[in-house]
UniProtKB/TrEMBL annotation, chain A:
It is a multi-pass membrane protein. Its main location: membrane. The chain crosses the membrane at residues 12-32, 39-59, 65-86, 98-117, 155-177, 197-218, 277-296. It is found in: Cell membrane. Pfam families: BPD_transp_2. Keywords: Cell membrane, Membrane, Transmembrane, Transmembrane helix. It comes from the Bacteria. This is ABC transporter permease.
TrEMBL record, chain B:
It is a multi-pass membrane protein. PANTHER family: ABC TRANSPORTER, PERMEASE PROTEIN, GUANOSINE ABC TRANSPORTER PERMEASE PROTEIN NUPP. Keywords: Cell membrane, Membrane, Transmembrane, Transmembrane helix. The keyword Membrane applies. This is ABC transporter permease. Pfam families: BPD_transp_2 (PF02653). It comes from the Bacteria.
Amino acid sequence: MMALVDIVSSAGLWAAVLRIATPLLFGTLGALLCERSGVLNLGIEGIMTFGAMVGWLAVFHGADLWSGLIVAAVAGAIFGLLHGVLTVTLGLSQHVTGLGITLFASSLSYFIFRLVVPLASTPPTIAPFQPVDVPVLSELPFFGQAFFSQTPPTYLAILLALSMAYLLFRTPLGLAIRMTGENPHAAEAQGINPVMIRYGAILTGSALMAMGGAFLTLSAFNSFFPTMVQGRGWICIALVIFASWRPGRAFLGALLFAFFDAFQLRLQTVIGGLVPYQIFLMTPYLLSIAALAVMARRARVPQSLMQPYRRGER
Amino acid sequence: MRLERRDHRPIALIIAAALMAVLAALAMAGILIGLAGAPVLKAYWLIVSGAFGTRLAATETLTRATPLILTGLAAAVAFRARLWNIGAEGQFYLGAIIVAALGSDFLSALPAPLLIPALLTAGAIAGMVLILVPLWLRLRFSVDEVVTSLLLNFVSLLFVSMLIDGVLKDPLAFGWPQSTPVSDHALLPKLIERSRLHIGLAFAVVIAVVVHFAQSRTVFGMQSRAAGLNPAAAIFAGVPLKLTLVKVACLSGGLAGLAGAIEVMGVKGYVTTDLSPGFGYSGIIVAMLANLHPIGVVLTALFTATMFVGADGMSRALSIPTYIADVTVALSLLTMLVALFFTQYRIRR
């Protein structure tokens, strides 16, 4: 029991919570933006993988870390464009196209990575983002060390959650996005172009997903390896529902999720001998499923999610 | 430019579109091979000869196609009813591990004619049980089964890893995490001597034919199709929607579990966490490439297996990453989606 208290009261745990939450937050915000405009993007797992790979590769070849993050975002937007053509222009099944993009993007990531970096016993590394202390706040006892000594992308992700909440609920553009997700025909009657809105949302959203992947290679770790995204994309899809399509709740959801993840990691060291480690590794996935079961009924789904919009066709 | 729905889709158009799609995917993969600095035509020739050039290669390709036929069918039957079972990978592993557990111990006293059917049934049931979880969540809590069935893949693989690192660990495996082998008389007979090709291939093809007739000639087939096309109309027409979905799910999960059982009993004899190089996920592509047609699945599974087995040799010869096979197969899924779209719509200016 004392051990549990020790874990929860360590600043290291809370610092890890924010770190683990960051890629989830990027991905969840990206998926949330797509879905608010009415498009489900199941390409997320593959787009995150590609972002992780291409961001790492850019830095490995001499780009600075921020450029690496931008390269990843652009690559994500390109996959978003592909998804847009398939789902918005052609109106294909969003389930199937998303899965197709995931399979394509992840296998392409592995292919390109292996081509550039031949199999070696020790994978090549880069110098990742270093933690930056927020002036004044980082000197607070406990909290300073726990929350205000993170790498820059973490602060960026939090900033993004705030700005997306503002964008969606306080600006005309946000209203247009939400309206397109609810009823594109009504949106069009208001002079909004649903096709443009959806393309914009998918491109931006996919760019965010790829940045979430790039966080893994540029900040959390310093190398790329296949399967490193490990289902985080799918967890983000679950988190969007958990968050009821709201950016603020997405932040809380990502934190909650990261808390359990960081906690189980530390719990392993305490009772690891008694319980197989696989049980601990299962928890994030089981937690996502449980979160879906609890929240899915209450969640207010954007009404036209997954419904293709064709002008003049019902 | 606008799109106009075609009045009818001739079967020749669909087949032509499918061939165009595969050619387009191969052309795009060719660009990647070219960028990697290898001769493209030679690469394709190496893929074909690597998959069929020798007797060994051909049997290897057919061995690889066997689980793909079954996981492809698993995806095809589910998708037809708009049940998005993306969990075939996990169902495959559960089917495999139950065979390793029962076939090495509890049931191994049975004679082969009883043991083999018992193990195959157990594998199928394991797959069914796993898919019923996402289905229950969908029917009870209206949770989209895509994410839940997918997340269960990770859970299943960890569960298998736990067992083969724990209670089912083979003490003779020099510390490697692998399951105890199934007893010799649980192994499936070979189809061709001195190869890995086993009777499972014939079994899978027969199942594909049976599924085809079940879908085209029976009430169940009609109901599952109706459930997929328009659930509201299906209920109105008196289709028991929930019951139909349960049946479809059991068939789908059962086929994926069976694939895992057959892979253990036909090829390896024991379970490791790399038993499947993504058979569950490739099955989705196999099913989509076949436009969800059970007989088509046999052909597209063969195409996919050809790519995977052929690319192995090609990549060694030209030092191109083997992932080119995954890229090509995934690309063909995307091009196929577009091609099938244009069998439904035409462009009008």
